[in-house]
Write a structure and sequence with these properties.
The protein is an all-alpha fold. The chain starts with a helix and ends in a 12-residue tail after the last helix. The chain has one domain: lambda repressor-like DNA-binding domains (434 Repressor (Amino-terminal Domain)). The chain is about 60% helix and about 0% strand.
């Protein structure tokens, strides 16, 4: 999950400090999330998704693939 936060953040041109200002999540916490030391969690995923203009599922379920004809 943390890697997806980092990738999307970097693709959108935000530094950790800039994202911290946009979200109110401390930069140290963002770093810990991106490095897998702190769990993302649903509430943080929602806040980050709003700031990064993506759906929270993109952050919470990276690499999720939908297979036709199979139930989740």
């Amino acid at each position: 999950m943390g890697e997806s936060v980092r990738i999307i953040r970097e693709l959108q041109g935000y530094s950790q400090n800039a994202l911290a200002r946009r979200t109110g999540i401390p930069q140290a916490t963002l770093s810990a999330i991106e490095n897998g030391r702190v769990r993302l969690g649903v509430d943080r995923a929602k806040v980050l998704a709003r700031a990064l203009k993506c759906h929270p599922a993109v952050l919470v379920f990276p690499g999720w693939e939908v297979t036709r004809g199979s139930a989740a």
